[in-house]
Backbone:
């Protein structure tokens, strides 16, 4: 029987938790209630038969019952939990939430699990510092906490269940789920034309070499204006830039798809392009990430997808 589920007990919250008398709860397990029933039956049999044997055995069982009460409670008392920085991951996949655990003495049968999920396998931990990773599966992108963490043990005799509940406050970054599908690919020129004047020219054209001139349009902005030709009185022209690295992809959500589905397609495409060593950038609303390659660029684009509104 899992006694960690009742909602009448207020859970602790924060980045740290120390288990003690104020946040540990204990009740007999199913086996414990059966133990009590046998104890009472022996008492009745001894009284009815006027025999000391069953009565003596019942008192012995009572002593074991009371000893198990203290041992089970002391099993968790004094444990100190703290959050470690969780690594980002993708929605709809199993992530791990890292915890640091300071154990003052031997802890047996410790089981951990998030609300709504089955408890994990029991841990036996010696005194010292331990690092545990509790799995969970986020359903959507963004910054999230896994929810309520249930901690419980029934060791050493299984007569009692001692538990506590904790709400870790450190959030974990969740990228959109990776789902293959269409994305919009823009040229660097198209990406710049889509930029607003307040966004400057963050598409990485500063270091590129221009190779042609086209009539200047208002959406080109002043950054691409050929000032030298303008000063010579030869008209207003805009510089057309080449692709210095070749094969660069400037990605944007597919406008014909629902927003969340389009972000999932972008997430998969970014992950795939990074695996191929390709250079890619991202246009997401008012946000512009210039084309680049490498793990930092991958994480920068995925973070933008995870946190965009």
Residues:
């Amino acid at each position: 029987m899992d006694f960690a589920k009742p909602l009448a007990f207020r859970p602790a919250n924060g980045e740290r938790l120390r288990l003690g008398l104020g946040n540990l709860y204990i009740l007999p397990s199913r086996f414990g209630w059966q133990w009590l029933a046998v104890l009472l039956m022996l008492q009745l049999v001894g009284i009815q038969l006027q025999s000391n044997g069953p009565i003596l055995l019942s008192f012995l069982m009572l002593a074991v019952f009371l000893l198990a009460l203290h041992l089970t409670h002391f099993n968790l008392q004094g444990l100190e939990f703290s959050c470690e920085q969780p690594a980002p991951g993708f929605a709809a996949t199993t992530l791990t939430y890292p915890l640091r655990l300071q154990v003052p003495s031997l802890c047996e049968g410790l089981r951990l699990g998030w609300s709504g999920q089955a408890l994990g396998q029991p841990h036996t931990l010696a005194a010292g510092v331990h690092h545990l990773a509790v799995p969970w599966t986020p359903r959507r992108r963004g910054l999230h906490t896994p929810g309520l963490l249930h901690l419980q043990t029934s060791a050493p005799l299984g007569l009692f269940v001692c538990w506590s509940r904790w709400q870790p406050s450190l959030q974990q970054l969740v990228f959109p789920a990776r789902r293959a599908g269409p994305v919009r690919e823009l040229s660097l020129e198209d990406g710049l034309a889509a930029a607003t004047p307040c966004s400057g020219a963050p598409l990485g054209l500063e270091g590129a070499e221009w190779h042609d001139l086209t009539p200047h349009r208002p959406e080109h902005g002043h950054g691409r204006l050929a000032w030298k030709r303008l000063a010579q009185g030869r008209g207003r022209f805009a510089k057309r830039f080449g692709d210095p690295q070749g094969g660069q992809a400037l990605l944007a959500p597919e406008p014909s798809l629902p927003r969340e589905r389009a972000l999932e397609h972008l997430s998969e495409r970014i992950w795939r392009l990074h695996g191929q060593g390709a250079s890619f950038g991202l246009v997401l609303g008012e946000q512009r990430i210039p084309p680049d390659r490498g793990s930092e660029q991958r994480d920068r684009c995925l973070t933008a997808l995870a946190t965009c509104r």
Remarks:
- Residues 1-8, 192-209, 242-246 have pLDDT under 50 and may be disordered.
- The first helix runs from residue 30 to 49.
- Residues 12-173 form one domain.
